[in-house]
Amino acid sequence: MANTRGLEGVVAAETELSLVDGERGHLVFRGHWARELARSRSFEDVAHLLWTGRLPAPEEAAAWQAQMAAARTLPEHVYRVMDALPAGLDMMSVVRTAVSALGAAQDWPPSLADAIRFTAAVPTIIAYRHARNEGRSPVAPRPDLPHVANYLYMLTGRHPAPDHVRALEAYLVITMEHGMNASTFTARVVTSTQSDMASALSAAIGAMKGPLHGGAPAGVMDMLEQIGTPERAESWIRSALARGERLMGFGHRVYKTTDPRALALRDVVTELAGEDPWFSLATQVEDVAIRLLEEHKPGRRLYTNVEYWAAAVLRAVGIPKPLYTATFTASRTVGWTAHILEQAAHNRLIRPQSVYVGPMPAAPTTPEEA
Ligand code: SDX
């Protein structure tokens, strides 16, 4: 029985939700190219596609958007739970706690209504706590605004710029779903025990929180801030790699070429960036990093992953760095809930094996010993 470290290459499920083709650098959501969806469809449309298997018809779009908007306000006790949390608690811990508080009932099987409820709630959770952290009065969700515009509005209290909405929407769409990544696998394992959606999502958020998974965009920003100028890139990266550090935003368990989402988001930032010197720095650091990673780990095929240019988009639209991973969570809640529904529909308890490598006791001398 093989022990596959990190379950690399192990197929854990069949899914109709997405294809992540690591050799070709292709990403497909339910039969559609994800990059095309990110360019042309709304958050609500692609959530509908992932949850139901089809995009909403034009005549359905307004009612569908209103249905998602109606789920943005939280039950009163969830606000109270957030107010009781210590100041300075990181946003992912706040989101994990508030999502857990949202799901009091033991609901089986989970429903599309549950998926909508949690997906609509996460932006409100983030924006409410962010405002309280800043000593501002939180603004209520605006049902007249689409999902992404409402998120930016709740974060700032001001009507968002259309180009910021479009850029953030492209990011949130293209990061919605990504096959059997660590947090999605976590959600499916919890669901396979017939536990409830809040428990599966709370566990998935815990997995997403880690720097090897969803925590990378903030690490990308820290790296670029520390490098500071294109001239310092080579020396900074060389010493980081020599210390055995991992460059945030590079490498991927599945993609052995550039992550297609990174390409899509670099296009988004290019449109937004104009002459921003920060964009030029990011571009030059990327080139140096790819070259030095190949030198450092020959043949490992370590390329740019989604997080590198995700950090650039989030910075360009004004999302504060402490909210980067929580914003990724707001997007991936769609993928998680879609996998939860799929797991529940064809459920079997997920229970892999392990190989015992510990010491064995002496042979039993009586039947009761063994
Ligand atoms: C996401 O799975 C998904 O789909 C995730 C995601 C999604 O949408 O859900 O795509 C989102 O998580 C993107 C990845 C974000 N994380 C980072 O950017 C953190 C930096 N990247 C790495 O830590 C790493 O590349 C992983 C964790 C992403 C993937 O690691 P693997 O596949 O387990 O590879 P590995 O750890 O076995 O590394 C192979 C070798 C190692 O060297 P050896 O010790 O074997 O000699 O490559 C090295 C690693 O040290 N390496 C890196 C590196 N990534 C791998 N060295 C320096 N910098 C890096 N970024």
UniProtKB/TrEMBL annotation:
<dbReference type="GO" id="GO:0005829">
    <property type="term" value="C:cytosol"/>
</dbReference>
<protein>
    <recommendedName>
        <fullName>Citrate synthase</fullName>
    </recommendedName>
</protein>
<dbReference type="GO" id="GO:0005975">
    <property type="term" value="P:carbohydrate metabolic process"/>
</dbReference>
<dbReference type="InterPro" id="IPR002020">
    <property type="entry name" value="Citrate_synthase"/>
</dbReference>
<comment type="similarity">
    <text>Belongs to the citrate synthase family.</text>
</comment>
<dbReference type="InterPro" id="IPR024176">
    <property type="entry name" value="Citrate_synthase_bac-typ"/>
</dbReference>
<dbReference type="InterPro" id="IPR016143">
    <property type="entry name" value="Citrate_synth-like_sm_a-sub"/>
</dbReference>
<dbReference type="InterPro" id="IPR019810">
    <property type="entry name" value="Citrate_synthase_AS"/>
</dbReference>
<dbReference type="InterPro" id="IPR016142">
    <property type="entry name" value="Citrate_synth-like_lrg_a-sub"/>
</dbReference>
<comment type="pathway">
    <text>Carbohydrate metabolism; tricarboxylic acid cycle.</text>
</comment>
<dbReference type="GO" id="GO:0036440">
    <property type="term" value="F:citrate synthase activity"/>
</dbReference>
<dbReference type="GO" id="GO:0006099">
    <property type="term" value="P:tricarboxylic acid cycle"/>
</dbReference>
<feature type="active site">
    <location>
        <position position="307"/>
    </location>
</feature>
<dbReference type="Pfam" id="PF00285">
    <property type="entry name" value="Citrate_synt"/>
</dbReference>
<feature type="active site">
    <location>
        <position position="252"/>
    </location>
</feature>
<dbReference type="InterPro" id="IPR036969">
    <property type="entry name" value="Citrate_synthase_sf"/>
</dbReference>
<keyword id="KW-0808">Transferase</keyword>
